[in-house]
Amino acid sequence: MKIYTEIIGNLNAPQWKEKTRNAEIELIDLDQWTAQKSRFVGRSRLDNEYAVALKRHSQLLDGDVLEFLPEQNKVVAIRIQLNEVLVADLSTLAREKPETIIHIAVELGHAIGNQHWPAVVKGTRVYVPLTVDKKVMDSVMRTHHIEEITYSFQPGEQVIPYLAPHEIRRLFGGTGPDSDVHHHHADAHPPHAHEHATGHNQETEHPHGHEYAHIH
Question: Which 3 state secondary structure label does DSSP give 183?
Answer without folding.
Answer: helix
